[in-house]
Amino acid sequence: MNTKTLINTAVINSTTKGGKGWADRLFAHWFNRLVYAQIWEDPVVDLKALALRPGAEILCIASGGCNALAYLTADPAAVHVVDLNAHHLGLLQLKRAALAGLPDHAEVLAFLADAAQPSNTQRYREHVAPRLDEGLRHYWEAPDLLGRPRHSMFTRHAYRHGLLGRFIGFSHVLARLLGGNLSAMVDAKTPEEQAERFQRHVAPLFRLPILHWLSRQPAALYSLGIPPAQFDALKADADAEGLSLAGLFEERMRHLACDFPYESNCFAAQAFARRYDPQRDAQLPMYLQASHYPMVKARVDRLHAHHQTLTQFLLGRDSASMDAYLFLDSQDWMDDAQLIALWSEVTRTARPGARVVFRTGGRESQLEHRLPAELIAHWRTDRDRNRALYAEDRSAIYGGVHVYEKIR
After folding, report:
1. Digit-coded pLDDT (tens) for 376-391
2. Burial, 141: exposed, middle or buried (Cβ in 10 Å; 0-12, 13-18, 19+)?
């Protein structure tokens, strides 16, 4: 299947009726392009939750690819990377080729961390392109809307591209027009200064009428990758907490801006500076940090890309053959039939003790309410542990992190 068909199948499901049907179709059309140039789920938390042993078989979703590359630090036998969106798989393969082909860490940082040097064109031609197959080379060398080859985004701040990157750029402009300043967070030196700058430059924006109005428009959030079903979950979460949607988004932005040191938060770097600082090793995505780079580079051949749904991939796997599953927020998109089909295959293919990690737009997991009792009985979760993991997730754009372990 092509990307359009896969996304339509995932989003326009059996619950699509009336106004929701039009909203789902609009989201599916909007999502049929590069959305994420980096992930927005914290792989440090994922790895802590999974407690993987060497030789594990892992299934994850590509998104921006940084997560799959980070999981290589756990010495897995294989990381199977699935995505509905071929653009995300193409980006993952480019990052993989850069890690494999560029001669040293400094060159990798120039291409994948700074991602804005004119000399990256030469790096692509000499070291990256030879590692790509013919189809991927055609993809990355095809012209964009302005006639530039796609790979040239790595000479123009690559992480400002994609729907989310452009949304963040628009948010910076809008914030300044409204009297705020998202980039003011960049120079904060202490947690106290981060909190003070957030309260002065960012928090007041969420109390403006225009932000309250925008936060209630589902289509305004499509560039964040929030489909209509997840928007409904966010609204229910806000109602349960006695907040407006703008108030809910303010709290999550505060978590991102204030609860972790800026100098060691790659997500805050992209949100507020719109770039990584290659001189701050701790601020880089995990797979690019100096201590992890050698093992990631040595293991990139253990990544396997699959352009299909999670369920389609698992249907081709043997029983009791998988150790870890990372679903990002994909289950928020699914109707009950899709969710049951996925978890039937997860339960069949999971080894004893296998773990599943996922995020939700709202705070609570819906599995206990949506899966048949005989299916969920194979799994257990610890809600206190889940809340603790969520508190450690530096991205902070979701409402919950959930871990399920197979017990029988």
Report:
1. 999 999 999 999 999 9
2. middle
